[in-house]
Amino acid sequence: METQHFSYDNKIVKFFAYATILWGVVGMLVGLLAALQLAFPIFNFNLAYTSFGRIRPIHTNAVIFAFVGNGIFTAVYYSLQRLLKARMFNDRLSWIHFWGWQAIIVSAAVTFVLGITTSKEYAELEWPIDIAITIIWVVFGWNMFGTILRRRADHLYVAIWFYIATFVTVAVLHIGNSISLPYSWIQSYPVYAGVQDALVQWWYGHNAVAFFLTTPYLGLMYYFLPKAANRPVYSYRLSIIHFWALVFLYIWAGPHHLLYTSLPDWAQSLGVVFSIMLLAPSWGGMFNGLLTLRGAWDKVRDSATLKFMVVAVTCYGMSTFEGPMMSLKWVNSLTHYTDWTIAHVHIGAMGWNGFLTFGMLYYLFPKMWNTKLYSEKLANAHFWVGTLGMIFYALPLYWGAIVQTLMWKEFTPDGLLAYPNFLETVTQILPMYHVRVLGGLLYFSGLFLMVYNLLKTAASGKCTDNEEASAPAIVTDTKRSNSEGLHRWLERKPVQFMILATVAILIGGAFEIIPTYLIKSNIPTIESVKPYTPLELQGRDIYIREGCNTCHSQMVRPFRSETERYGEYSKAGESVYDHPHLWGSKRTGPDLAREGVPGGKMYKTNVWHFNHMLDPQKMNAQSIMPKYPWLIKDVLDTSSTPAKIRAMTTLGVPYAEGYDQIANDDLKKQAEEIAADLKKSGIEVASDKEILAVIAYLQRLGRDISVQK
């Protein structure tokens, strides 16, 4: 058989590795700032651009799509070439992918700082950047499949299965969740509303975790862990079960983020059932990884690389046990909206993704620079500092979550809420927030040990940008032999493999989403629910711009503890005009779904809202809410009102024909009424300020349901 000579492209791997390190430092630095802001509000700096609501999506996107994303591409570009015995399909595509992805990351950071966001969890980017992501993702897939199709390896190794599933599923999720109607060159409204938007969002959100933070990293585990341990994967058959069960089951589990909400019960139940089923393949993958080290555990003692990988796989097992447990309704009733979710997510991000990335980098740099790791002691120090950082980060949040949820639900012997003031439940867990900062600081400081170690390693060697290699040419037989297993045959058929993986992930999403649109009884209408006034619509968009939904939910669950605190539980039909939904995932502050009900449990006056937005600490010294002085100074941009009304009308919101032409007249009238009410209390504010729109929106929340009663 003819031997063919070619070269591996190490230069693109090197650049993605450097980008991984750079964005890891940036993303975790911003995360540390966000943790400081929750513990000490002064770190919001009283500036619009540095407030928690704008910083938080920068942190999540920088860690997920910049740090982890570049880590994925580092792993794929390195391992794919070696597993397929082929150079990447096209060098130009590789570099378009690299620079395009970095440009997207920078664009994301700039837009978030400016408050340009859709507010959809892990999908906050606006439509022009979403289109750019789609293009660059296609470039990545084109390059990957081109390489697969010209491979010199007969079969596709298990890591490549996970890379294929990642590509097709992320494409489906991103396009499905990002469909929106632009009302300007940079901003838009999602086509989905209320219940439907919540379902599509968490179909995306849960599976963004599954197919961006999990499946590609499982491919990374299946390649780099055996390489670092110099052992074969424990079980080929377990790999097959792990892969197909995971990609089929994961896509169904999104509704477990919406338990006890207005989502139809049947969809919630499906989310619970499939979440519990996920435990089996997830732990099968964990055991396959850990048992790969059989006979090599002595190496773990001496190798920091393997230490990072072992703890990463263990954290994967912990997270994938915790997730199904949190999807049990009785557990979810305690943990949802608390910091338990934050701790759970960070065990996955810091432990599974972070540590596996660190392990990969410690393995790659000596290999690519043809030298030894500069200091194994520094790498071990990084491991222990990072591990302690995770412990000090997560444990206080678990403890604080238990404290807070029990305080939320506690009643006195007389049947009254023991802690009716929500702020009491926040101040009680502030010490946990302080310890969390210490944990984040430890984890972050470990990065600098790694950066120094890897740079010194690179300086001691030389990276071969084009690594010479050779392999025999193969002639792939498309026929299946009698002795060949079905899956072994499928591994020689990448196109069919991709199609089957796509079908597997489409079934669950279609089964949950389509009935929610076609069967009207899933979202019964409420006659008293009306569209937002122009001023309220503008106020809602400012509320989204400032990231208020990051800390406040708008979903009263049917628990006595919540109806006693907030008012009547939320109905499916009351959010039919909400593009997007704002049900929330975390309560750092109280729920606002009934904020505007006159005489209600949560009702506040216009004056209270004005003073609270201006200086929350003046209203209560223990508040950790940021100040929003710019809302009082900044003039409301009403030039966008007609376009927003037209977009909403197109999406089915029943504004009268031609209302866009007179909407600003109603806006001005309502603003003047609020300004006049504030003036009665001695507050002079012009009727064109943004604060009036925010107050109008907050005073609208829940009013339609109170009218119905």
From TrEMBL:
<dbReference type="GO" id="GO:0004129">
    <property type="term" value="F:cytochrome-c oxidase activity"/>
</dbReference>
<dbReference type="GO" id="GO:0005886">
    <property type="term" value="C:plasma membrane"/>
</dbReference>
<dbReference type="GO" id="GO:0022904">
    <property type="term" value="P:respiratory electron transport chain"/>
</dbReference>
<feature type="transmembrane region" description="Helical">
    <location>
        <begin position="156"/>
        <end position="183"/>
    </location>
</feature>
<dbReference type="InterPro" id="IPR004677">
    <property type="entry name" value="Cyt_c_oxidase_cbb3_su1"/>
</dbReference>
<feature type="transmembrane region" description="Helical">
    <location>
        <begin position="12"/>
        <end position="38"/>
    </location>
</feature>
<keyword id="KW-0349">Heme</keyword>
<feature type="binding site" description="axial binding residue">
    <location>
        <position position="59"/>
    </location>
    <ligand>
        <name>heme b 1; low-spin</name>
    </ligand>
</feature>
<feature type="transmembrane region" description="Helical">
    <location>
        <begin position="433"/>
        <end position="455"/>
    </location>
</feature>
<protein>
    <recommendedName>
        <fullName>cytochrome-c oxidase</fullName>
        <ecNumber>7.1.1.9</ecNumber>
    </recommendedName>
</protein>
<keyword id="KW-0813">Transport</keyword>
<dbReference type="InterPro" id="IPR036909">
    <property type="entry name" value="Cyt_c-like_dom_sf"/>
</dbReference>
<feature type="transmembrane region" description="Helical">
    <location>
        <begin position="203"/>
        <end position="225"/>
    </location>
</feature>
<dbReference type="InterPro" id="IPR003468">
    <property type="entry name" value="Cyt_c_oxidase_monohaem-su/FixO"/>
</dbReference>
<keyword id="KW-1133">Transmembrane helix</keyword>
<feature type="domain" description="Cytochrome oxidase subunit I profile">
    <location>
        <begin position="16"/>
        <end position="457"/>
    </location>
</feature>
<feature type="transmembrane region" description="Helical">
    <location>
        <begin position="234"/>
        <end position="252"/>
    </location>
</feature>
<feature type="binding site">
    <location>
        <position position="257"/>
    </location>
    <ligand>
        <name>Cu cation</name>
    </ligand>
</feature>
<keyword id="KW-0186">Copper</keyword>
<dbReference type="InterPro" id="IPR023615">
    <property type="entry name" value="Cyt_c_Oxase_su1_BS"/>
</dbReference>
<feature type="transmembrane region" description="Helical">
    <location>
        <begin position="377"/>
        <end position="399"/>
    </location>
</feature>
<keyword id="KW-1278">Translocase</keyword>
<keyword id="KW-0812">Transmembrane</keyword>
<feature type="transmembrane region" description="Helical">
    <location>
        <begin position="341"/>
        <end position="365"/>
    </location>
</feature>
<keyword id="KW-0472">Membrane</keyword>
<feature type="binding site" description="axial binding residue">
    <location>
        <position position="346"/>
    </location>
    <ligand>
        <name>heme b 1; low-spin</name>
    </ligand>
</feature>
<dbReference type="InterPro" id="IPR009056">
    <property type="entry name" value="Cyt_c-like_dom"/>
</dbReference>
<feature type="transmembrane region" description="Helical">
    <location>
        <begin position="304"/>
        <end position="321"/>
    </location>
</feature>
<keyword id="KW-0679">Respiratory chain</keyword>
<dbReference type="InterPro" id="IPR000883">
    <property type="entry name" value="Cyt_C_Oxase_1"/>
</dbReference>
<feature type="transmembrane region" description="Helical">
    <location>
        <begin position="98"/>
        <end position="117"/>
    </location>
</feature>
<feature type="transmembrane region" description="Helical">
    <location>
        <begin position="497"/>
        <end position="518"/>
    </location>
</feature>
<keyword id="KW-1003">Cell membrane</keyword>
<comment type="pathway">
    <text>Energy metabolism; oxidative phosphorylation.</text>
</comment>
<feature type="transmembrane region" description="Helical">
    <location>
        <begin position="58"/>
        <end position="78"/>
    </location>
</feature>
<dbReference type="Pfam" id="PF02433">
    <property type="entry name" value="FixO"/>
</dbReference>
<feature type="domain" description="Cytochrome c">
    <location>
        <begin position="534"/>
        <end position="702"/>
    </location>
</feature>
<feature type="binding site">
    <location>
        <position position="256"/>
    </location>
    <ligand>
        <name>Cu cation</name>
    </ligand>
</feature>
<dbReference type="InterPro" id="IPR023616">
    <property type="entry name" value="Cyt_c_oxase-like_su1_dom"/>
</dbReference>
<keyword id="KW-0408">Iron</keyword>
<dbReference type="GO" id="GO:0009060">
    <property type="term" value="P:aerobic respiration"/>
</dbReference>
<feature type="transmembrane region" description="Helical">
    <location>
        <begin position="272"/>
        <end position="292"/>
    </location>
</feature>
